[in-house]
Amino acid sequence: MSVRSLYDDEHEAFRQAFRTFVRRQVEPSIAGWEEARRIDRGVWHRAGDAGFIGLTAPADCGGAGVGDFRFRNVVIEELARVGANSLSSSFSLQDDIVIPYYVSLADTAQRECWLAPMCLGRSIGAIAMTEPGTGSDLRGIRTAARRSGDGWRLTGSKTFITSGIQSDVVIVVARDEDAGGFSLLVVERGMKGFDRGRQLDKIGLHGQDTAELIFDDVAVPPENLLGEPGRALHYLMAGLPLERLSIAATAIASADAAFEWTKQYVLDRHAFGQRLADFQHTQFVLADVATELDATRASID
């Protein structure tokens, strides 16, 4: 790995604190989470208490009030280092995707109700965009919110929703004909007509629950509107760059970890009287991969 200039002493001190947390609270549980297909909510509580969730949220909402993404990048790298990718993806959803919507759009009452518990790890958030017949074409969303009194009646379904089973509050993107566009409505656990569908099987990230969500004429009160009605696509466009950065950071951190595991394997493994690392072809392959990783990491940094 090439020498990096991305971090300063404060980031490295944070890394050491989080690495200790990972060693004590994460590593012993990874295999169990993957087998159970569910992450124990206790690790969310402990991470929240230690200040490792809600880094970008304001301090008066229980967050750290830090806009420096490098601290989030440290969390991503340390979880990737031990193969805790299911937890990393779940934390990234909370910190890099869901929480920023509440920070930028929620009023004071909404922040107290939803944001503070998420920063403490007592509440798990999700965002529901994708539908069975609608992927990246968000304008094709069919889940509908029709006005009913001061609020809305929400009907439709979503799929591939990260933290769909365990989520306590879900930001739902819905077609709002009365507003002439799409609106963001917050649906809470226990609302009548809100049900979880299947937890989906995946080829990886088994500990991270990904599910279908069903909304059968859910009554959504006016105070559960996030932002202005009809402005959802604008809000989504504003939030996607940080989501994409988080995905890129996770990808390079995971690739770096896999490279380090591979390098250690070829140093330890012997065949035909020598280490695998001593074979010229192995060296060529590792050098090619290391070069690609260095170039990609430099771009992301």
Tell me what the structure shows.
- It is built from eight helices and ten strands.
- The strands form three sheets. Strands 1-4-5-8 form a four-stranded mixed β-sheet, covered by helices on one side.
- A hairpin with a 2-residue loop joins strand 2 and strand 3.
Structure at a glance:
By secondary structure, the chain is of the alpha+beta class. The protein has helices at 9-26, 30-36, 41-49, 69-81, 85-105, 108-119, 232-268, 280-300; strands at 125-128, 144-148, 151-162, 169-176, 181-188, 194-199, 210-220, 225-226, 270-271, 274-275.
Runs in which pLDDT lies below 50 for 5 or more consecutive residues are: none
How far the N terminus sits from the C terminus, by CA atoms, comes to 13 Å
Q: What class would the helix/strand composition place it in?
A: alpha+beta
H/E topology pattern: HHHHHHEEEEEEEEHEEH
Strand fraction equals 15-25%
Sheet with the most strands? 4 strands, mixed
Mean pLDDT over the residues: 95
**Quantity of strands, as a count:** 10
The total of helices stands at 8
Estimate the helix proportion, in percent.
40-55%
Principal-axis shape equals: elongated
Evaluate the radius of gyration.
21 Å
Question: Secondary-structure blueprint of this entry?
Answer:
Blueprint: H1 9-26, H2 30-36, H3 41-49, H4 69-81, H5 85-105, H6 108-119, E1 125-128, E2 144-148, E3 151-162, E4 169-176, E5 181-188, E6 194-199, E7 210-220, E8 225-226, H7 232-268, E9 270-271, E10 274-275, H8 280-300
